[in-house]
Amino acid sequence: MDKFDEMISRAMTEEDRALLARHAPTGYIPQALGLFRGPMGRTMRLVYAVMLLAFAGAAYALWRVLTAAAPLDAVQWGVGALLLFQMTTLAKSYMGSHLEANRMIRELKRLELQLAMLRTSRDG
After folding, report:
1. Is 20 helix (H, G, I), strand (E, B) or coil?
2. DSSP for 21-79?
3. How far apart are the first and last CA of the chain?
4. Which is nearest to 88 in space by CA: 51, 62, 63, 56?
5. Which residue in 117, 123, 120, 124 sits closest to 8, CA to CA?
6. pTM, whole model, 2 decimals?
7. Residues 81-108: tens digit of each pLDDT
């Protein structure tokens, strides 16, 4: 793979390099914050809010398990804590899949940009 990258790098002009650098991949934090923008922004904010509430509820239920006097109460709170922790995990998985989809879309757009630059250089 390195040979292909070197061949592509040698074939590009300085203007091409500058254009690709401007569309370079970002770090994890900007990608994660990017989930809250765009067409799915409202949905992601809602999922994040539900996830935070589920985690707070699970933490409270776990505290009630640890302080329960009767075994039946501990089991009931424990089941609730388990379900809420699973809800938190499900929400994180949902957000993670969208993060990965956004990453793939970004890479496809970079590929489209490279193809457009190649077509322009060939036609011009």
Report:
1. helix
2. HHTPPP-HHHHHHHTTSSTTHHHHHHHHHHHHHHHHHHHHHHHHHHH-SSHHHHHHHHH
3. 29
4. 51
5. 117
6. 0.72
7. 999 999 999 999 999 999 999 889 888 8
